[in-house]
């Protein structure tokens, strides 16, 4: 049985065909036969990309900007310099693999157009590689393009989800972020996201789901409306489980066979090279085990439903790492020393540093160097003096 996969998983393959060549061109990968995946920071340390972010920025006309971001921790000056060298090469060289990325994206969009009847195009291709964070300790590689008419429009409503036929799968260390353009607000989202930019959905400009997670048919789904149609905190702005029937329409979406054929097409363009260069893990793709029929059969069809309370599992254990950090910061008045976060979570310094770098890159926290310490703050709680207070 062909596995029903989602467009976001296809995005990993899209990047694979474009990402392998720049890595090799920059001379950063390893020529050894070791199974470990090499990343831009060099063969000596050989860390993999720590996380993969898929971002869909929804526009009022139904178009969406798709951005695929791959992140790696840079732990010293040597790694930072090697990554910068790689970034310059990645941005400067128009390789055949970047061209293949564009071709595969256009093929994907053409298939969506044929099924939905909406006129679609893949435009505005961009790529970038850069460092972020307090000490440039996060390396980011990204590719993006605009998918015109990605979402269905119904008057002033913009509805995302009809292309996710059969649902989609997010792997470990992956996340999907849907953002609303200025002027748009979320009216409803299903299933309930793991994180929102604001406590109330209507006031939030983004919703996020963390992997590993498998969504049900035509999920995730988001309905967006003009800002003045939904007030912050109103009952009209809701989240729901995968079984909710809010605004369900008759669109059939992309059938399983079409998506299966698309993945085969993408595989010809990039996966063979991708695997040969041992980049699969570094690019955050799902494993063969994840995609096997046996794995599908073992998946709970209600896996997206909100977890039922288990007295053996604490609320804190059910939080994602970044959510736990945000809770800690709120409990300490919005600001803590980075060393205190290490102590209270009992995580390693490197794990905390990497996590904070990613949160800082997403503008969820800020860090300020005070003496020999880093002060970590939630937005609006930044230190106003030179004293490092918790």
TrEMBL record:
- Which keywords belong to this entry? Membrane, Transmembrane, Transmembrane helix
Q: Where is the DUF7345 domain?
A: 55-183
- Comp. bias intervals (Low complexity): 231-252, 285-296
InterPro entries associated with the record: DUF7343, DUF7345, WH_DNA-bd_sf
Q: Which residues cross the membrane?
A: 253-274
DUF7343 domain residues: 319-379
Name of this protein? IclR helix-turn-helix domain-containing protein
Organism of origin = Halarchaeum grantii
């Amino acid at each position: 049985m062909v596995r029903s996969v989602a467009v976001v998983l296809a995005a990993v393959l899209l990047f694979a065909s474009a990402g392998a060549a720049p890595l090799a061109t920059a001379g950063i990968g390893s020529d050894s036969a070791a199974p470990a995946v090499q990343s831009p920071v060099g063969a000596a340390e050989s860390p993999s990309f720590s996380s993969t972010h898929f971002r869909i920025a929804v526009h009022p006309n139904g178009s969406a900007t798709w951005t695929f971001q791959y992140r790696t921790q840079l732990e010293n000056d040597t790694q930072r310099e090697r990554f910068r060298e790689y970034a310059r090469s990645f941005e400067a060289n128009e390789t055949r693999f970047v061209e293949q990325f564009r071709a595969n994206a256009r093929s994907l969009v053409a298939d969506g157009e044929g099924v939905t009847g909406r006129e679609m195009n893949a435009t505005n291709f961009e790529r970038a590689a850069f460092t972020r964070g307090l000490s440039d300790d996060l390396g980011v590689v990204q590719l993006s393009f605009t998918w015109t008419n990605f979402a269905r429009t119904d008057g002033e409503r913009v509805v995302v989800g009809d292309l996710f036929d059969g649902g989609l799968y997010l792997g470990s260390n992956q996340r999907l972020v849907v953002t609303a353009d200025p002027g748009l607000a979320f009216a409803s989202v299903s299933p309930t996201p793991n994180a929102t930019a604001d406590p109330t959905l209507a006031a939030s400009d983004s919703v996020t789901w963390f992997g590993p997670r498998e969504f049900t048919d035509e999920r995730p789904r988001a309905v967006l409306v003009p800002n003045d149609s939904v007030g912050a905190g109103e009952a009209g702005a809701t989240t729901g489980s995968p079984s909710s029937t809010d605004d369900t329409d008759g669109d059939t979406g992309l059938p399983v066979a079409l998506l299966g054929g698309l993945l085969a097409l993408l595989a010809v363009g990039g996966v063979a090279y991708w695997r040969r260069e041992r980049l699969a893990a570094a690019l955050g793709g799902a494993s063969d085990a994840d995609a096997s029929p046996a794995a599908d059969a073992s998946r709970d069809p209600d896996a997206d439903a909100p977890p039922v309370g288990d007295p053996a599992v604490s609320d804190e254990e059910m939080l994602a790492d970044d959510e736990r950090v945000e809770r800690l910061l709120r409990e300490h008045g919005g600001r803590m020393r980075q060393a205190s976060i290490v102590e209270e979570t009992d995580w390693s310094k490197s794990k905390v540093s990497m996590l904070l770098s990613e949160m800082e890159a997403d503008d969820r926290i800020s860090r300020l160097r005070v003496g020999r310490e880093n002060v970590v703050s939630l937005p609006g709680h930044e230190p106003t003096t030179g004293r490092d207070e918790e």
